[in-house]
Amino acid sequence: MTRITKKQRLTGGALLTLIIGSTLAAATGCQSSINGQTLPSAYYLQDDVQYFPVGPEFKLSREAAALQAARAEEKANR
């Protein structure tokens, strides 16, 4: 019967941890940002497509209408 030393056990555990860690890192798809570019994950073809319906060209139409009404009211009060 062979005895496993503490050093061998630590080395084997570290090697096993390294193998499991590198396998998990390789199997995980994640976005990465390199030089200001957001690169897709490895599974970008299977991702859900996000749909945003077309909205108005001028996004502040209510605010513009309120400002116009306020200016018209100010002119009428003069």
Question: Which short descriptors sum up this protein?
Answer:
mainly alpha; single chain; 78 residues; 50% helix
Task: Describe the protein's architecture and organization.
There is one protein chain. The chain has 78 residues and is mainly alpha-helical. It has one domain. It has two helices and two strands; from the N terminus they run αββα. The chain has a two-stranded antiparallel sheet with strand order 1-2. It is rod-shaped, with a radius of gyration of 31 Å. The N and C termini lie far apart (105 Å). The mean pLDDT is 81.
Counting DSSP E segments of at least 2 residues, the number of strands comes to 2
Number of discrete domains: 1
What coarse outline follows from CA principal-axis ratios? rod-shaped
Q: Whole-number radius of gyration?
A: 31 Å
Helix content: 40-55%
Could you tell me how far the N terminus lies from the C terminus, measured between alpha carbons in angstroms? 105 Å
What pattern of helices and strands is seen along the backbone?
A: HEEH
Number of helices: 2
What low-confidence regions span 5 or more consecutive residues with pLDDT below 50? none
- Placed side by side, the strands forming the largest sheet appear as 1-2
Which structural class do the helices and strands define?
mainly alpha
What is the mean predicted local confidence, pLDDT?
81
Question: How would a crystallographer describe the biggest sheet?
Answer: 2 strands, antiparallel
DSSP strand content: 5-15%
